[in-house]
Amino acid sequence: MRARHHLPLILAGCLAAATAVAQPALVCPTAPAGRPCDVYHFHVQMYRVDTKQFVEVFGVNQFGSPVACDRARDLHIANNGKAIDHLRSIKQQVERDRVGPCHCDMTTDKASPNYLTDQQRVSHLRTAEEIRLRLRERLLDEKVTSDSELVRGLWAELPLTPQLGAPKLVPLPADGAPIQVLTATEDLKTTKTIETSKPTVAALHLPLAEIGAAPPPPPVPAADALAEPPGTPPAATTETETATTTPAPEATTATATPPVAAPTIEEEVVPAPIVAADPPPAEPVVETTTVPEEDIASAQETAEKFVKYETDRILSINTAASNLADENLKSKILAACQQRLQLLSNLRLLIEGSGMRSRLAAAARDAQQENERLALIARLFGDDVTLHWAPVDATDAIFEIDPAIVAEPERALRDTTGAFTAQQKKRALYVALTRPETTESQRLWLGGIVEDFLR
Amino acid sequence: MQNAECKIEKKLLAAFAFCILHFAFSLSAQDVPPPDVPPAAPSAAVDEEFETAVYTGKKFAEMGDYASAYEHLSKANSLKADEPAVLYNIGVVLARAGRYSDAQGAVDRYLQLFPNGVEKPNIVLLQRELQFQRAVQKKRQQDQEYADLFNRAKFHYGRGELADALRLFTQAEQLRGHDAAAVYNQALVYEKQGDYAKAVDRFRRYLELEGDPEAKIGVDERIFNLQRELEDMKSKIVCSFCGRKLPIGATWCERCWHGPYHVQSPVWNTRSCADGASATRATYFADQRFNRNDILPCLWKDGSMLETLRYSPARQRTIRSAREAEGWTYAGEVLQDWSDKSGNQIRMVQGPQHLEKITSSTGGEVLTYVAHAGDSGGGGGIWLLDREDLVIDAQRYLNRYTYDAAGRIAQQQVEYQNTAACNHLISMTADYAYANDALSTVAIKGGYQGYPAEGNPKTDWTATVAYSYDEKARVTKEEVSLASFNKTYDVKPAGALRDDINKLYPSMRIRKPIENLPRTGDLCAGAGTAPLTNAVDLRPFYTLSPNLGIALQNGITRAVVTFTYPE
Fold first, then answer.
1. Paired residues of A57 in beta bridges
2. How far apart are the first and last CA of chain B?
3. Residue among B58, B125, B318 minimizing CB distance to A254
4. ipTM of this model?
5. Cβ contact (<8 Å) for A158 and B364?
């Protein structure tokens, strides 16, 4: 009795197993090892509702990726399943399509037994369409409307990629924003008409006159003294020398005797080079750097980092000053802090404007430690500024500068006569940078001076 | 009396000299202000003070402290005005201090008072030195201005402000015509601006000016490349999709298969954007009734297709930039892949000479291209498609082309499965005829054999495209007309499909042509209340004309495009 109950199940199991064995694998023969596959497809054993037989078609779909193939396969299974389930629900004996796995499509490989000619491929397509039409007919016969999801689903396909359906003759892009042209100032050539390597030198060989004594004879250049007669005027020299004011040994002894022909004092005024950040003329056109560009923080980032740190320093000075009782002192510190903030604002513009490869940006970038920062400040604004820049006491932030420099810092900075010392010029730079409104051309000029100071 | 007058004059001159020196000194912002010592009458004390001042001034001068030296010499001069040696020393000290104009004042004073003074030889030398220093100062001032100008130009260049940079480098050249760097930099700017003719001119001028042979290295090659670019601007066009340089005469871009680029074809030059140009397409029903007019938008903003697509580096950059903004990538000049943030990808399988395949990860499409060189081995850059997969409005087509001896399309075959209607496998063929190098007619035929279940319908149609030209060889009229349109069911449709077909064609009889098919159109099945239609689809014949890329809707059998041109 018990065995009789199980008999249908056993028979059904055997039948299913036999059917599974009888079914073909629904895949193409394997591609030769190592050959890449660029087209995928799946086979379908379509169930013909009119003949109640399965017909295999494998030339009806092709996909560029296994993923797309799987999606299309799933879609086919789902839509076919819905239609068959509907027919089964009304007692029709129909079967679902049998759908093979996605695999490499060998129908385009002439060496494959599954190779299809164009005609054979058309034949597969026509067979598939005929079978689908038969199923459609069966659905319509069961009063399913022709625009229902079930009927439309029989031909459902993955949507095509929109980019592939674009017109073959596309219009030219509209004239929108201009394309940013990449320019690097390193590509530019540097003018050689400005003699930076041989600055002008004012060399006066004339001796001073002794009051009441015979007039001093005209000088004779030492090198030419033997060759030229006395009184020959010295040629103006343009030799390159270091900026020095060197008293001649003879000058140390004041006598009533006439000065010797050799110049007692030779002054050489070496002005600051004019062209900032320009390479020496002998350098190649394109400045090379050993630091890869990607490793260098941009000038903006450098400026931001440097200025932020220094701004924080000012804020802490200000905080410390707030504890002072002397209002007069406090207001002086506040004024100094405000000046410094303005200076930092201008310094930021200079760093950004001078570019990531400039000396200023490089120096700001490299100034990581406190001593390095102060060294940079000293190079820019003078050695004694560092005490005020990073004061131990808030009152040290107060910074007194020569009123003449405060009044006309440009004059000191532009001076090429030696009337101002290097330290005074650096102080003048400090003053110039505390000016609230600097123009672009002023910044350019100041940038050149800064590069000079850092040279 | 004369002596008294002389003394008075001497005193006046002394006062004048003091004023000049004092004024000059004030102007130069001397560190130490000049002594404000009133003129004093000569006396023993004054003599002593004078000698001390002279001595001190000289000692300071020897120390190199010229400001202090001047202070004391000036004091001496005020004590005893216009002593020639003091005046001379003041001149020397001021010159050494770099105050050349003040020194000149002292020299002038000396020469005025003591034209034959004992210091005259040295004064003459000092005078020369001062003249030289003035020249030096002037040169330095000019250098400074020139350097400022140059730096400003560089600044603008670095910011990509090419027009400003060019203006300043040109100014620099005007100031110093011998400065090779200013000329070279102008050339760079012109090159960046795409004005290669001017860039070549400037580079040549640079070679004339530059004296350093090492600096000239590479400039000749640069000129050569620019000249080649200039030649390309005369003889090449750009692919409007990928920006590739193509020879005039190429039909397609072989690296993306966009086109056609029939830049010299009158048919493809029918839609100029110039004033007075127009293109109007009128469509008509089978019974000759007018349907509607369509004003076709202009295509060629530079007047002609050739000028609109003519190669220029800027145009190429613009196209590439647009594609890159859409997500396309390039390998050198060749278009490669597309992707978006969702992971969708299109891959261009580029062969050694042309695009061979496009695959998409999204829809899984595989578009295949087969082509051959249209000239000797493809060296001229002209490639002709033999086969292509085409997608228009989500419909896939397969095109096959054959060509005549001149490389013109002689025949185009189209096959497609009409997924927008009943999945019929439709074939079309277009035969092109030319007269005097101009397209004269195109004969198109199309049709399909339906499926047994639906009654084996067989549809075929023929159409003709004809062109009219004016005396200037411009197309005046382009007309497509459906000459025949037939459909016959071979057997009765199966089961419920029969009812479906009968709704479409109530009077349908098997093996008899459907009546009035041109008027009803080719209906193949119902989809609810709306019928599905196999339209006469001219869209895959996209190389034929820019004006007829349409599918004729039901009942439309003729389309006429008329053109006007600027006078």
1. A44
2. 101
3. B58
4. 0.72
5. yes
